[in-house]
Amino acid sequence: MIAATADGIDALPPYSNRGVYPSIVDGPYPHPAVGIDGYNSTVFCNADALVSELVAMLIDFGLEPRVCDGPKVRFYARNTVIIEPSGHRLLSVRSGGQNPHPFVECKGEASPFVCGFLRGRYDHNPSRIDVCEDRRAAGLFHRLHRLSKRIAKRYGIQWRPEGDWSTPDAGRTIYIGSRSSQLMVRIYEKGIKFAKDSGAPTTDELRNWIRIEVEFKPQNPVSRRLARTIEPSAIWGSAQWLADFAQEAFAMEAERININQRRESDQARALRFMGSQYGGHLRALYSELDGDLTAFGAAIADLAGIEHTHH
To answer: Average pLDDT for residues 68-90, to the nearest whole number?
Structure first.
């Protein structure tokens, strides 16, 4: 972890996933988010039944969901949106058209509920999971700016800033990783965004509120299988660069997991094809040799022209 110094903005207080910083809930602002903040998934069920059950689930969690028709979405016949009384969108369910199964898109406070509900009730294939950590400290964005550049350079991954960096309180964002990859980190001034969205004055407390968010988009059989059950903390350990970032940023000891499919060699592919193509003949040969693996191996060696000693 970066050591604290006595030079003001460059000082880095100790981070912890146990919550070292004062909770933003102490002020007139939303509770800081930690954990799943977005969950998108294809769900293998009836769309109308899914919408009804999602509404019932959100009511059980104390929300006041309302159902309305959303704007048209390409490739889908319907876009059912579930909103709060204020008009804030909780989630959408797209269905019909070219897609045989409904697709749920959820972002924000309803995401942990939707994730738990789908995992406990339906067969589904998540296409994107967002996990976030909110932190608050003076100068934190500047320190994460330097740390993110260092991590990107160390691992040779993309790093890019976005937003207006010359105008105070305009809102800045940092991205680590490619948008098209399985993992991307987004660091932004959440408090400033909250002030803009809500009309609240931009106070120092809001300026210090920073969100660090991981976007996980499974793209191979290994990661797609893991996405159905993976815990938020495990996503931070799904790449070495991400685990190092989490450790240096907020002392999170994320256990490394593998989300990449091991590339099959040409030889392994050829042997797999041979087994598939000639499996019946090989099994027949094995039976003719009364299940003697030594004799079976010798017969295969003879067929391959491999010299060996017969016993």
So the answer is: 95
